[in-house]
Specification:
The complex is a heterodimer of chains A (132) and B (291). Chain A has 132 residues and is α+β, with helices and mostly antiparallel strands. Helices cover 26% and strands 45% of the residues of chain A. In chain A, strands 1, 2, 3, 4, 5, 6, 7, 8 and 9 form a nine-stranded mixed beta sheet that branches. Chain A starts with a strand and ends with a helix. In chain B, β1, α3 and β2 form a beta-alpha-beta unit. Chain B has two domains: 55 residues, ATP synthase, gamma subunit, helix hairpin domain (Helix Hairpins); 213 residues, Pyruvate Kinase, Chain: A, domain 1 (3-Layer(aba) Sandwich), CATH 3.40.1380. The chains are: A alpha+beta (132), B alpha/beta (291).
């Protein structure tokens, strides 16, 4: 039996990626990283900034996502996100720019815990990207 | 009757107007194609988003504690209307149709004794509404600088809406835009986005069992603001396709009218030229006869 399922990544502007032969997806879900295999239970969750890994027959792809919602149903994984970048093609300038912007955000006083958590997450991920 | 010279000048000026409208039609056709493509590409996102929200709101256990963006404030006193129009004119009835629809709604609201607040997106809508409803307009937004419609702009609009909702400045929010049906037909739409209309969430025939992580309410709280951006983005895309379609058919009509006008003027020109020749001939002949 094949172990493959369908992955769809959708941007507001367009369909970002559609793949039929995905074997595993690692998503940075809000409450911790989550690996999704075929026949996973139907789930809805949202993402925190992090690295999205897609394993398929043709190899492994990595993407950087800032936010989004995932839905898994009938062996189709849909990811709705407004900002996603292929890690191989990501613009270094964008990373450093975004990093300094986010660091500025963190220094604000009136943050609640949730957004502070998301922002520090984002900084960690961006730092790890730029150090590679 | 106008002199021959005047007629000639008029024919020329109509012809050059025709050239302009023709060029505008071509440009609109090219832009329409792109706008239509964009609108189609954007559809999966908003559809999926709607689906997820539908599933979520079905899954929510106690409706009383549902997020306010979904359930509303419980009041129905202050209505916020977001009117999406274009920044450019010369597109037939495109802007007027939206405004007409919006004005009908405004009159209904005010006659029911409710408060009205207006946000205009796009400068043409502001121009048409400011005379009558200037005191109601709380904000005007224009995206003249951005060449293409992007999600970022939609997010800006939704941020303004959500912020003012959180300050309890309104109870119900409706957006007005033109839905693109085809090049000739665009339907002005009024869509209520806060609270989410039950017709869009009430489809309960099939309940899926989803696992939620974190809890439903928390996801919903995170998702609903995003949904508003998405709905506005969708409306903007539809609007831009409609605008170009409307402009294309308007310019097509204008070109045809100019053609008819040129024909008419040319006939008039030829007739008066002939009349002048005949008159001259008669003068010569009668002059010769009298000798």
């Amino acid at each position: 039996m094949s172990e493959e399922f369908k992955l769809e990544i959708v941007n507001p502007e367009k369909s970002f990626l559609s793949k039929e032969d995905v074997t595993e997806v690692l998503v940075p879900a809000y409450e911790g990283d989550m690996g999704i295999l075929k026949d996973h239970i139907s789930i809805i969750s949202f993402l925190k900034p992090g690295i999205l890994k897609v394993f398929s027959k043709s190899g492994e792809d990595k993407y950087y996502v800032e936010d989004g919602i995932i839905e898994f149903k009938d062996n189709t994984l849909s990811i709705l996100t407004s900002s996603i970048f292929n890690l191989d093609k990501i613009d270094r300038n964008y990373v450093s720019q975004s990093l300094s912007d986010t660091e500025k955000l963190l220094s604000k006083e009136d943050l609640d815990d949730q957004s502070r958590f998301l922002i520090s997450q984002k900084i960690d991920v961006l730092k790890s990207i730029s150090s590679n | 009757m106008a002199s021959l010279d005047d007629l000639k000048k008029r024919i020329l000026s109509v012809k050059s107007t025709q050239k302009i409208t023709k060029a505008m039609k071509m440009v609109a056709a090219a832009k329409l194609k792109r706008a239509q493509e964009n609108a189609e590409k954007g559809r999966p996102y908003s559809e999926k988003m709607n689906n997820i929200i539908l599933n979520l709101s079905n899954g929510i256990s106690d409706k009383e504690n549902a997020p306010k963006l979904l359930a509303g404030t419980g009041n129905d006193k202050v209505h916020l209307c977001v009117v999406l129009t274009s920044d450019r004119g010369l597109c037939g009835g495109f802007n007027s149709n939206i405004i007409k629809k919006a004005k009908a709604y405004f009159t209904k609201i005010t006659s029911e004794g409710k408060n009205l607040k207006i946000i205009t997106v796009g400068s043409k809508g502001y121009d048409q509404l400011k005379r009558q409803y200037n005191d109601k307009i709380v904000n005007k937004i224009s995206f003249k600088e951005s060449k293409n419609i992007n999600f970022f702009d939609a997010e800006k609009v939704s941020k303004i809406i959500i912020e003012s909702f959180q300050k309890n400045e309104f109870d119900v929010c409706t957006i007005f835009y033109n839905k693109f049906k085809n090049v000739i037909t665009q339907i002005p739409q009024a869509q209520q986005i806060i609270p989410l209309k039950s017709s869009e969430t009430g489809n309960k025939n099939e309940k899926d069992n989803y696992e939620f992580e974190p809890e439903e309410d928390e996801i919903l709280g995170n998702l609903l603001p995003k949904n508003i951006s998405t709905q506005i983005f969708k409306a903007m895309l539809e609007n831009s396709a409609s605008e170009q379609g409307s402009r294309m058919s308007a310019m097509d009509n204008a070109t045809r009218n100019a053609g008819e006008m040129v024909d008419k003027l040319t006939i008039q020109y030829n007739r008066s030229r002939q009349a002048a020749i005949t008159k001259e001939l008669i003068e010569i002949i009668s002059g010769a006869e009298s000798l």
